[in-house]
Amino acid sequence: MIYLDNAATTKPCEECISAMNEVMRQAFGNASSLHKMGTASIEIISRAKRTLLSTVTGSKAIFDGDVVFTSGATESNNTALRGINFRGKKIVTTAIEHPSVARTADVLEKQGFEVIRLAPKDYENFEDAIIGSVDKDTALVSCMAVNNETGFSIDIPKIYKEIKKKNPATVVHIDAVQGFLKVPLDGDLISVSGHKIHAVKGIGALFIKKGVNVSPLLFGGGQQKNLRSGTEPVELIAGFEAAVKAYHGTAEKFNELKARLLDGLYGLSDIGINSNEKCVPNIVNFSVRGVRSEIMLHSLEEDGICVSSGSACSKGKTSSVPAAFGISDKGADCAVRVSFCAENTAEEVDRLIKKISETIERVRR
Predict the structure, then answer these.
(1) Quick one: which of 42, 92, 164, 168 has the most CB atoms within 10 Å?
(2) Residues 69, 75, 78, 82, Cα dihedral to 10°
(3) Whole-number Å distance between alpha carbons of 123 and 25
(4) What percent of the chain has pLDDT over 90?
(5) Of 182, 232, 158, which Cα lies nearest the Cα of 56?
(6) Do the beta carbons of residue 337 and residue 308 sit within 8 Å?
(7) What is the pLDDT of residue 68?
């Protein structure tokens, strides 16, 4: 099998699996227990927090705040958007957000907030557009660091710095699910997910900058400083930390794979590339004109090649994201997303190109 759908989920790395197994066997205590098994669990959680706080920004700077472990990015995003102390009635977000942000923004709009949704196709400089939309009434800016369908990347440190200059009271939330460990990050609230970086599903985190107040979504035993009640999944947390430490995807490797893929695609007829120079190299979105995505995906799957047509969360439903990038309905209907991990090879890319070529010839015959 050739797995090229890493933006949907990644294969758990051996380091993650090993760490989880060790904890399940040796340190399975409840972190709220007062005996030594509980203490061991607390130590594992504390160590994982230190690791994540020292890596989330992508720089040598340690994140100035705390991290709360969640069930994943959807919970982290909902906590961020629904839990902040709103100081204003205006929310600035984008038209390319993951449903966990977009649908939550819809709910807030129904509650009386003014929601501004910006689309990249409408602006030459998208960062400036986001910054320019902030005013004295802006309570929240929420945007993703890297779009999951095209790989479009936003300069997060720039917008965070400039937004804070314009209105220090505006809370900046960053959905960093696709950007974590890949691009520089900053923000008052940062959401990440374990299964995108070779940990397992069911574990995520919300980084909360010092001084930012967030109300919990879940109430119960008061774990994690009352911000996320529920017994901490120590095994998942240990696996998450191990995956962070073991992560070895690099821009250099991804650029090599992307260049090889693009070279192959350019040699085929009627191919439109939907991922431009603003996109990260590990995600490539393209349209095979005249061949619907569903047909192409099934054809590739017959040869053991796994890719996708866009967001895995849409489950076959039409996504509104391509239109926000100016991709036509026909182009979106023929879109294919290839997303790399560090284990993918040039030979796998060559096999993908060969199968795409064969499918085009068969379908257009």
Answers:
(1) 92
(2) -60
(3) 54
(4) 92
(5) 182
(6) yes
(7) 98
**Domain chopping of the chain, boundaries:** 2-8+249-364, 14-246
Q: Tell me the CATH number for domain 14-246.
A: 3.40.640.10
Q: Per the structure block, which two tokens stand in for 156?
A: 């997060």
pLDDT at 111 over 70: yes
For the domain spanning 2-8+249-364, the CATH number is 3.90.1150.10
Task: Give me the active site residues, please.
Answer: 313
pLDDT, mean of residues 122-130: 97
Nearest to 281 by CA among 305, 322, 326, 249: 249
- What is the pLDDT, as a whole number, of residue 196? 98
Mean pLDDT of 93-109: 98
Query: Is this model's pTM higher than 0.70 or not?
Result: yes
Looking at residue 317, its pLDDT comes to 63
**CA 216/CA 297 separation, integer angstroms:** 41
Q: Is the dihedral of CA 325, 124, 81, 11 positive or negative?
A: positive
Question: Residue 183 contacts by C-beta under 8 Å, 6 or more apart in sequence?
Answer: 58, 145, 146, 153, 156, 280
Three-point CA angle 13, 191, 247, nearest 5°: 25
Average pLDDT across the chain, whole number: 95
